[in-house]
Amino acid sequence: MDLTKRFNKNLDKIQVSMIRQFDQSISDIPGVLKLTLGEPDFTTPEHVKEAAKAAIDANQSYYTGMSGLLELRQAAAAFVNNKYQLTYNPDNEILVTIGATEALSASLVAILEAGDTVLLPAPAYPGYEPIVDMVGCSVVEIDTTSNSFVLTPEMLEEAIVAQGDKLKAVILNYPANPTGVTYSREQIKALAEVMKKYEVFVISDEVYAELTYTDEPHVSIAEYLPEQTILVTGLSKSHAMTGWRIGLIMAPAAITAQLIKSHQYLVTAAATMAQYGALEAFKNGKDDALPMKEAYIKRRDFILEKMTALGFEIIRPDGAFYIFAKIPDGYNQNSFEFLQSFARKEAVAFIPGAAFGQFGEGYVRISYAASMEKIEEAMKRLARFMESDESR
C-alpha cells in the first residue's frame, strides 16, 4: 500500500522553502554567524510579559471566542485608529489570528476558488505562493526590479487587465520583505485608484508598519480602499513577539463574516494567555517599537555603507529590517552558490535572493535584526571574501 499517491496533488507544486534549504545546507558549519532570520533580536517588553503571567495566574486558560478577546479587539481598533487613521468595529470587523501567517491562510482559503489567480509584486516573501498553490490557484508575479522594487499604477493596471476574470486578489506587502521598500501616501493613493475600478480583494500585509523609517508615517491602503481591503497585521515585528503568534485580520463586516469561517475551522482561536499579552501591547505599548527603530536605522546605515563600498547595488530600504543587495558583476550570480561559498569560506550566512522568486536571483538578503557586533563582524568577513578567488 502506497498512501503517498493519495495526497492533495496541489502539494506537488510546493517545495520546502529555499530559506530553510539554505539554512540546513550551512548549519553544519561550526560557529556560523547567521544574518538570516526575520526575527528581532530584542526581547518582548516587560510589561507585556507581566500581563501574560498575570493572565496565567488568574487561570485565563480557557477558549476565547473565535474572534478573540473583545478587549483585545477594542485595543487593536484604538491602536490602528490612533496610528493610521483606520476605523474598524471591534465587534464584527476584527479577528485575532495565530500570527500573520494564519491571517493570510484564513483569508486566501476563504476567497479563492480553483483556477483563480493572485497578483503579487516581486521579489516577494516566499510564504504567499504556497498557500495559493494549496487551494488550486496560481500566483502571477509583477516584476518590479526595473523600478527600484516599487509597484507603479501602470504595472498594476496592466497586470489586472491581463488576468481578466481569473483575477481574485492582489497581495501587497509593505514595508516589504525582502527589499525593505515602502510606499508614500501619494503612491498608495494612486494604487488604490486603480484597484477601486475592479472587483478584486486587496490583501495588504502590513506587519512591518511600525518599522517605517521615512519622515512620513506608514499609510495603510485600507485608508483609501476600505471596502476591498483585508488588512493583515500583528505584533511579531513591532513588539518582538514572534513566538507569541498573535496576528490580526481587519476588514469590513461583510468580509469578516466569511473569513471567520475559515479561521474557525483552521484554528478555533489564538492562545488565550498570548491574547492577554497582546492586549497589554496594544493598550500600553504604542511606542514600544521606537527603541528598535533607532537601532535598526543605525544597523541599516552601517551595512549600506560597507556593502556599497564593496560594489553591491542596494535600494535604500525605508522599512522592515532587511537589505536586498545585487551581487556585483564579475561575481557568481547564482545566489545560492555564491552564499554557499561565502558560508563555507567565512562562516557567515545570508539568504539567497532566489528564495524570493525568479526576480530575486542575483541578489542576497541580509537581516539586520541582529546585534551590531554580529553585523560588524559579518561585514569584515564579507570584505575579505569579496577579495578571494572563491567569490568569483
UniProtKB/TrEMBL annotation:
EC number: 2.6.1.-
Keywords from the named record: Aminotransferase, Pyridoxal phosphate, Transferase
UniProt xrefs under Pfam families: Aminotran_1_2
Limits of the Aminotransferase class I/classII large domain: 32-382
GO MF, any single term: transaminase activity
Cofactors (names): pyridoxal 5'-phosphate
Database matches in InterPro entries: Aminotransferase_I/II_large, AspAT/PAT-like, NHTrfase_class1_PyrdxlP-BS, PyrdxlP-dep_Trfase, PyrdxlP-dep_Trfase_major, PyrdxlP-dep_Trfase_small
Enzyme class: transferase
Family recorded in the similarity comment: Belongs to the class-I pyridoxal-phosphate-dependent aminotransferase family.
Record-linked NCBIfam families: PRK07309.1
Entry protein name: Aminotransferase
Native organism: Streptococcus moroccensis
